[in-house]
Specification:
Helix content: 25-40%
Order of helices and strands: EEHEEHHHHEEHHEEEEEHH
Low-confidence stretches: 1-39, 326-338
Number of strands: 11
Radius of gyration: 19 Å
Distance between the termini: 42 Å
Number of helices: 9
Shape: globular
Mean pLDDT: 77
Length: 338
């Protein structure tokens, strides 16, 4: 089985331009949410349950928010040891020598400049502007630009400009530490011999700006809602961000790419904007409708089957946003998560 230790992000991969996706912790939400909708969407549960069954993942966790209602879906286990359920290529990542070095010493710190040097040691995939390809290196460069312009790290700036103003109290940067504040969802990876091992504790310095943030599904929903509601960016900038890049194709016929955002036009006519991420032990995704009135964040605590992640994302989004249209339209209006 091919392992991809550098495909960063399961709570720790860049999501929607500046903030990063993150491991779903088990702790309380950042601020009070409306009472969970007990009539959870069976279509979304069926999609995640089938993914867990087919790929032998330990478990899955998702939270959706729509018009003042939240609903949670938890399947399988969050910790295989205790059986606890889940609670609410122009790129350095493809460099084989760097990958081998990470395998030999997964806790070795990798400075951003070192990652960029590895990336630029390879020839470009195409002339600038001639095509499109996803690149983790670009997020590393964005972090370096933030440092140069502000004199502060991108982690400090994201904390100051996004995390604190939005009240994302369960979202933070580990700052080089390999530990997380409990309780948290354990992540698992599969060895070449098909043995499952705990991959929760790891060094994320190989993913600066693209995969070194820890968060919860609740906080991810709050962030996505705020971004799509226009609370974080000027409207012209947000419009540019949500406009598909010519020639981009983010894994399937219904997925295009904006500026750090996967734009998914669902078969029911709804368009959603979000991102997915992978990291040793986790597969994640978060998306929202324009205006931020309906959001969905999910995490699976097994990182194998990455090739099927886009298909899983599309199925989950179709189940949530298309399958719940009638329910959402009849739901009472409520305050957006803050």
């Amino acid at each position: 089985m091919e392992r991809t230790p550098f495909r960063a992000a399961a709570s720790r991969r860049a999501v929607m331009a500046v903030a990063a996706l993150a491991v779903a912790l088990l702790g309380p939400p950042a601020s009070p949410l409306p009472v969970a909708d007990q009539d959870e969407d069976p279509a979304l549960r069926a999609v995640l349950a089938e993914a867990v069954r087919q790929n032998h993942y330990p478990g899955a966790l998702a939270q959706a928010w729509s018009r003042g209602r939240t609903s949670d879906v938890a399947i399988g286990v969050g910790d295989v040891r205790t059986g606890e359920a889940p609670r609410s290529d122009f790129d350095y990542t493809t460099d084989k020598e760097l990958s081998r070095a990470y395998e030999r010493d997964p806790f070795r710190r990798l400075p951003p400049r070192a990652l960029v040097r590895v990336a630029v040691s390879h020839p470009p995939l195409f002339p600038p502007g001639a095509a499109w390809n996803y690149s983790d290196t670009d997020y590393v460069l964005l972090g370096m630009v933030i440092q140069r312009v502000t004199g502060r790290s991108y982690a400090e700036e994201i904390t100051r400009r996004i995390i604190r103003p939005l009240g994302l109290r369960s979202t933070y940067f580990p700052s080089g530490s390999s530990s997380m504040a409990p309780p948290y969802l354990h992540g698992y990876e599969m060895s070449d011999s098909d043995a499952i091992k705990d991959a929760t504790v790891l060094n994320t310095s190989f993913a600066p700006g693209s995969g070194d943030m820890i968060s919860t599904v609740g906080d991810l929903n709050r962030f996505a809602s705020a971004l799509l509601a226009g609370r974080l960016l000027p409207q012209p900038v947000l419009h540019q961000m949500l406009t598909p890049v010519p020639g981009s194709r983010a894994g399937s016929d219904i997925d295009k790419y904006g500026l750090g955002v996967i734009i998914t036009k669902l078969p029911c006519g709804i368009t959603v904007y979000g991102h997915g991420g992978t990291l040793d032990g986790y597969l994640t995704g978060v998306t929202a409708q324009s205006g931020g009135t309906h959001t969905l964040a999910w995490v699976i605590n097994g990182s194998w089957g990455v090739a099927n992640q886009i298909a899983l994302m599309d199925k989950a989004y179709i189940a949530e946003f298309c399958g719940r249209r009638q329910h959402a339209s009849s739901s009472p209006a409520g305050p957006r998560p803050r």
